[in-house]
Structures are given as C-alpha cells and as structure tokens.
Amino acid sequence: MIRNVQHCRIRNPTPDDFEGRRPKMNLSTHDEKLLGSHLGLTKETCDTMKSQTKIEHAFEMWEWLLEYAQSFESRHLFYEVSVPTYECNDPIETVYSDDFERDKIKNKWLEVMKDHPVEQAMKRANMASYEDDLASFKRQRSRVVHFLEDQYQREVKTWTKLCQFIQGYDLNAHTFFEEYPDDAYQRRTPGFKPDDHFWSLEERNDCAPEIAITYLRDCVDAFKRDMSSELKNTIRLHEYSLKKKNKSDDEQTTAKKRQSLECKRTRLMESLTRAYDDFDVAALRSNFKEVVDGLEEEFRRVRRARKALLTSDVLDKPEVDLGEDEDEVDDRIDWDATGWNTESKTVLAWAYWDFPDYYHTEDGWKKKEKVDQKVDEGVDIEPYWWNGL
Questions:
Q1: Rounded distance, CA 294 to CA 255, Å?
Q2: What is the DSSP letter of 133?
Q3: Which residue pairs from 322-328 have beta carbons closer than 8 angstroms and sit at least 24 positions apart in sequence?
Q4: Given its phi and psi angles, is residue 388 left (phi above 0), alpha (psi -120 to 50 degrees) or beta?
Q5: Residue 346: DSSP 8-state
Q6: Is the CB of residue 117 less than 8 Å from the CB of residue 143?
C-alpha cells in the first residue's frame, strides 16, 4: 500500500472512463449519478495515501491465522486442502472457503469438518478477510485461538515434561532403556500365577523405560486435534467411502495419508511397542528418538506460528490474549549431551533375571525352548514377562 505521499491528486472521471461506452453515446441517469459519487472515495483515498498512521488489514492477518490453524493439523489431507484457492478446479478445495466453491465442485472434506468449531470460525474469518472486515475477522480469530488454546497448553505441558525427563537422564550412567530392577524375578511370591504382575508399583514407577514411554504416549495424545466422537467416526467412514468410490485414486490417497505426521507416528509407536515386547533395545531406542524428533518438529511449527500470529496487528489491539510462555519451552533436545548417540556396552538387563527362556546374542534376544521354573516352595510356574503396555 502507498503511504506517506506528500502530494496526491485524483482527476475527475469523464464519460469515456466507463467501460463499454461507445463514442457520443448519451449518458443515462444512472451514469450521471456515478460521475458525482466519487468525491467521498477520492478524499478518503488521498487522505490514506498522505497519512503516516498505521493501518491494519484483515487480509494480511488471515495469512498468519491460517498458518497457526494449520500447525495443529497433523492429518496430511486436511492440512493440504486448508490453503485458500478460490478458483481451484481440484475436487478437493479449501476447507475454509466453501462460499467460493463452484456448483459442480463439492468439497467433501469441508462437509466432514463443517461442524468443527475451528473450521466454522476459519470460514467466517476467511470471508471477513476477503471483505477486509477487521472487526469481524478479529472476533473469528479470537474464537479459533480460544478453541485451540486447550490443545496448545496440553502440548506445552506434555512436551516440557518429556524433554525434562530426557535431558535430565544421564544415559551414559544409567543406560536408559536397559535399566530394570534386576532382582524382581527372585522376589516373586510362591503363589505367583502367569497373569500376576511381579513388579511392585514402586519398581514400575522407578523404571526408566516405563516412565519414558508413558511420557511419550501422553505427548502423542496431546498432539491430536480435539473433536467429538461423532466427528471422528464421520471422518473414518468418509475416508473408507472415498476408497470404495474411486479405487483409481486409492493409491494416491493412501500415499498422501502415509505422509501425514499422525499416521507415521502411529506406525512408529506400533514398532516401538513390538520392540519393547521383543527386548529389541536398538529398535526401541531408534523408534523412540524418531517419534520424539517428529513431535519436536511439529511443536516448533506451532511455536513459530503462534509467535507470528499477531505480526500484522500494528495497532496493539489484537483482541486475543496469547499469554507468555517460559523460555524453556523453546529449548531443543541435545541428544549428544544425554549420551543417546553413544552405543552402550552394558550387558542388557531386559528379561535377564535368570530367565532360562531367553538368552542374549549379538543379534538381540533369542527365545529358548519353553521350560518350567521352580521357586523355593516348589511351585511350578510359567516363564512370564510383563510388558506394561
């Protein structure tokens, strides 16, 4: 926008300025009124160009709001279609611009998400930005931020707790995923049954792998968008109907879905669980770190978008309170400092509590033939492993 102009003059319009008018054509009464209706707009335009005062525009604020709302979305298809493209010919149009859709182009994803508070407010904010209605835009932006605030606070809380645990745990000294109470097996009672937990509550609470995985699961759950059970079911059914309706696009849709952070994280958590059950420490450490790195990337994106949200609010009247976070929130995990990248030489304690059904090799834990164990009182028991997941 042109600002701080010393001299500005806009000439009066003439009949020839009307588009489509032929020479010597007589002006209609309506055209004559239009010629005299420009005075107020001319003065307003000149005053704006000469002024040095700051001006806010809803269409500039919209870009920052869109980035902030997108940062909470880990589903690839929803994230991808949330960019406004008013003249788009793609069957999947923007989630936030249904008013600009053509009659024959229906946005199924918008139909799925239309009842979500964030999508509703974003649609209205998009229209307000298109009309540059500042007051309406700020009201809708406040609603978006207010709804996402609970999820943001959960992300901050769980991410901070996970980071503090990782940063404060000396992997070189404690070998992290290899430290278990080594005498838990011997302290089982004579009446032990295969479905009993032979760890005490205190032992499980002090076990590093249990704590780490619990914190990680809490963090993963915190990064999922808030929505009703009905909406979750609608999304699941809609994804299924898309595959059945158009099998030619099934591979492309599946590929896009696999790119999503949420789906990738789900697969990693499943692999992490299998590694935990199989005593595969190398895979467990690898999957754990990869999930944490993905969460960190997503959290940094949210933090960047949150800091930039009010960039275009130059009049200091944002009508939304973002509060202030601690500086520690932006700290990154230093894996080298924790000793994570140092290959451990410690003999694994996993299931090594004199368990005859497992033995350790260079390729990992191997299961022996099934045998019985006897405690002091002579009670036969089955070899048992409680995985806690």
A1: 18
A2: -
A3: 322/145, 325/156, 328/160
A4: left
A5: S
A6: yes
CA distance 199 to 235: 41
Q: pLDDT by residue (tens digit) across 322-343?
A: 877 766 677 788 777 766 665 5
Mean pLDDT of 94-106: 41
pLDDT in tens, 250-262: 455 555 544 555 6
What are the residues whose beta carbons fall under 8 Å from the beta carbon of 300, sequence distance 6 or more? none
Largest distance between two CA atoms of the chain: 117
Distance CA 232, CA 238 (A): 10
List, as one string, the DSSP characters of 307-336: HHTTTT-TTS--S-------GGGGPPP-HH
pLDDT tens readout for residues 114-155: 667 888 888 888 888 888 889 999 999 999 999 999 999 999
Residue 170 one-letter amino acid: D
Top-confidence residue, 158 or 248 = 158
105 secondary structure, DSSP code:
-
Tokens found for residue 88: 């788009």
Q: pTM of the entire structure?
A: 0.63
For 262, the enclosing helix (H) or strand (E) is helix 261-277
Q: Where are the domains of the chain?
A: 1-53, 58-143, 151-381
Separation CA 175–CA 346 (nearest Å): 7
104-113, 167-176, 281-290: segment of lowest average pLDDT:
104-113
173: its two tokens:
């000294």
